[in-house]
Amino acid sequence: MDYTAKLDDALNALHREGRYRTFIDIERRKGQFPHATWTKPDGTEAPITVWCGNDYLGMGQHPVVLEAMHEALDATGAGSGGTRNISGTTVYHKALEAELADLHGKEAALLFTSAYIANDATLSTLPRLFPGLIIYSDELNHASMIEGIRRNGGAKRIFKHNDLDDLRAKLEADDPAAPKLIAFESIYSMDGDFGPIEALCDLADEFGALTYIDEVHAVGMYGPRGAGVAERDRLMHRIDIINGTLAKAYGVMGGYIAASEKMCDAVRSYAPGFIFSTSLAPALAAGAQASVAHLKRDHALRDKHQTQAKILKTRLKGMGLPIIDHGSHIVPVIVGDPKHTKQLSDMLLEGYGIYVQPINFPTVPRGTERLRFTPSPVHGPDEMDKLIRAMDELWSHCALNRAELAG
Which family is this sequence assigned to (predicted)? Predict the structure, then answer.
C-alpha cells in the first residue's frame, strides 16, 4: 500500500472540487476586535476586519472577562493539573457550573472542554443510563450531536428538518413503552433558522420523551438573561437537557450541559468524554463565569447585536443578493458553487481586507455553498459600509445572479 499516494488522492479530490480548506493566519488585537492582523503566505502583514467570527458580542475582548482571567491566572497558574476526578476541580469550575445552572433555571450544570465534547459525551452515554433508549434527531443537527448518537450503540430515528409530522410518525411507529429522547437545536447555524421548540416539547410530553436542546448559537444572545431561545420563549422548564457553549457569545472556551442534579451526576459518572478529559484551565473558567454573569445583565449589547444583523440583512437584500433570513443573527449569502465561494472569499480578503470563510459541502448541501456573515455590536458603520461596497462590486465582477430587489 502506497499510503502517501492515498493521502494525495484524498487531498487532490478536495482541490478539484474547490473544497480544500485553508487556515487564515490572523492575530486578534486586544481592544480592537473585529480588527485583526493577517499574516499572508509570503510573511507580510495586513490589517483585516473579521466578519465570520463566533465571538458574537465581542466578549473575548471585554475588560470584565480579561480582568477575571488575569486574576485567576495570577492566583492559580496556567492549567488545572488534572481531570475533574483527579485534582482538576477548582473553585472556579464549581462557581462557573453554579452560574450556568442559575442561568438556565436548572439544578445543576456540568462543564466540558467544548460544546462538541458535551454533545458527543452526553448523547453517547444516555443509552447506558436508559437501556433501550430511542433518540429522535433532527436531520440538520450539528455534527457533534450526530457523532454522539451514532456512537452510542442505541436506536436512532432521523426526522426531516423541523418536520413535526415526520417526527410524530416515527414516534407513533415505536414501542410506547420504550424510553425516548428528542434532540434538536434552537438555532441552526448554517441557515440561521429556529427549531419549533414548543411543538417539539408538546410531542415529547405526548409520547413520554426527554428533550435535548443545543443552544450553542443562542446562549448569551437571546432571552432576558441570555439563556437562549428557550428562555426567550419561556420554555426552559420543558427542556430536560440544555447544551451550550462558552466559546461563542461568551467569548472564552468550553461547553456544558444544564439539567437536573441527578442527570448531571449520572453523565459525569458514566461519560468517558468527561471522566478522562483534563478540565478547563482555571483562568478560562473564571473568564467564562465573568462573561455569563455580565451578559445576564447587559441587555443593550444583545439589542445592538440584533440591530446590526437586521441592518446588514436589509442592505444586502437591497442589492438583490440572495440571502437567507429567518430572523436570527446569522446572515448567509448563497453563492451556490464551491469554487466561486472560495474565489469570493479570497478576493474579499486580498482586495478589501475583509475576512469571511467560505462554507462548503459537507457543512452545507452541495449547491448551497455560501459566505456566512456574523455581524456583531463592535462592527461599526464604517466596517458595514466597506463590506456592502465590496460585496456589490465583487458580485458584479463575478457576474453572479441577483434576486429581484426587495421592496
Answer: Belongs to the class-II pyridoxal-phosphate-dependent aminotransferase family.
Cβ-based burial of 15 (10 A; exposed 0-12, middle 13-18, buried ≥19)? exposed
Global pTM reads: 0.94
CA distance 300 to 348: 31
Residue 251 is given by DSSP the state -
In degrees and rounded to multiples of 5, residue 342 shows phi and psi of -65, -40
DSSP for 28-83?
E-TTTTTEEEEE-TTS-EEEEEESS-S-TTSGGG-HHHHHHHHHHHHHH-SS--SB
Which amino acid makes up residue 40?
K
Residues 6+ apart with CB under 8 A from 95: 285, 286, 289
Distance CA 157, CA 22 (A): 35
Per-residue pLDDT of the chain (407 residues; tens, 9 = 90+): 999 999 999 999 998 887 888 888 999 988 899 999 999 999 999 999 999 999 999 999 999 999 999 999 999 999 999 999 999 999 999 999 999 999 999 999 999 999 999 999 999 999 999 999 999 999 999 999 999 999 888 899 999 999 999 999 999 999 999 999 999 999 999 999 999 999 999 999 999 999 999 999 999 999 999 999 999 999 999 999 999 999 999 999 999 999 999 999 999 999 999 999 999 999 999 999 999 999 999 999 999 999 999 999 999 999 999 999 999 999 999 999 888 999 999 999 999 999 999 998 888 899 999 999 999 999 999 999 999 999 999 998 887 777 643 33
Catalytic amino acids? Answer: 248
CA 238, 156, 114, 358 dihedral sign is: negative
Chain-centre distance of CA 273, in angstroms?
Answer: 19
Site of grid cell 420504550: 178
Cβ(223)–Cβ(229) under 8 Å?
Answer: yes
